[in-house]
Amino acid sequence: MSRLFSAFSGSGLMARVLRSASWLMVGYGGSQALRLAANLIMTRLLFPEAFGIMTLVTVVIVGLSLFSDVGVGPAIAQNPRGDDPDFLNTAWTIQVFRGCMLFAVACLLTIPIARFYHEPDLVKYLPVGALALLVSGFFPTRIETAHRHLLVGRLTVLDLASQAIGIGFMVIYAELNQSVMALALGGVVSAVAKLILTHFLLPGPVNRFRWERAAADDLIHFGKWIFLSTALTFVISQGDRAILGRYLSIDMLGIYNIGYFLGSFPMMAGLSMIGRIMIPVYRDKPPAENATNRQHLSRLRAGMSLSIGLALLLMAAIGPQLVGLLYDDRYQLAGPMVTLISLAFYPRLVILTYDNVALAMGDSRSYFIVMMVRAVFQILCILVGLAYFGLVGGIVSLALATIASYPAVVWLARKYGAWDARHDIVAVMAGLLATALILWMHWADIALLAGY
Hints:
The chain is 83% helix and 0% strand. By secondary structure, the protein is mostly helical. It is globular and about 55 Å long. The N and C termini lie far apart (53 Å). 48% of the residues are buried.
């Protein structure tokens, strides 16, 4: 116990990594527990079509956010001036302008998007949901400063508190009105709560409008490739739902979104931790610098892969039973979806953290190249999978796209000495064996979904 305590204590890099990883896992686990509780309550207060409509609203909002991301967070994390008030205030000014523009664009796109998906209700709900983009533009840069220094304990508590406030409002509104508007307003209330809580309770200087030319040049130079890369991130993270919105009925899309939420939970938890931790780690311990750094990083990656991989395989194994326990009969097809989605995410274990090394070294261009390869393969695989094998083929295509893009990821990892071939081989072999067993266990449920 004393060795464990000493590993978490002190101000060294690995101690801060362990503490931050613990807090991030607590934060993400708590966040998803709140989200699951809200989901269970809302599925009883509302109807599957409501979740389908909000899936489309979320796709648009996340898409706008990602298509316009200029990399303020990663820039603060890796830039030597990341603690300079002029740099931070310039970054905040850019962020505020971006939030205002996103809200305006969302309003302008409302009618065309409603017509594209043949859902007139989007005209009512999309502008309301987009208010969260406007509010988030005013989030203080103290949030990114806390991540830069791997000091995220208080921030995690504030994030959970703001989410709980939004969920509480959403449940009360749905109980009183039985309206989809509850889902649209919940995210807005949560964003407002986070803005207020972080402004008053997170330590650090208050942001002011500032435009320093040198800081703006640094942010724009670093962010231009991030801007393009996050546009591709939309394709990778939301492309399936954007395409399925045209392929599935609105109620089936809502069921798919529930299956995706449960099936992707372990991977999303890992990505939320890795995205915040690995840039500072690669920045302070470059793998190409010496063998000791590579050894530390190898152990860190192995621990992450083991924990996330086991969680994914467990979720795949219990997917149908879990859905049957938590949801009523209207949502039962989400069960085999959970199994397939969890297994489809498993190949991403192999490439976890490799893209972060490029961002840590300030090489956003190489990061963009890899994201472009992944996005192209994902769109092609989804379209082919849906065309020839229906919904099951569309889900399986998520795994095939990751496998097809692996050579590009290896190119990036080798460029900075981060490739760990032994880790990748072990992860692949273990995944193949477990996938075969789980598919055999749930073949009847998957066949039922394939017949939809």
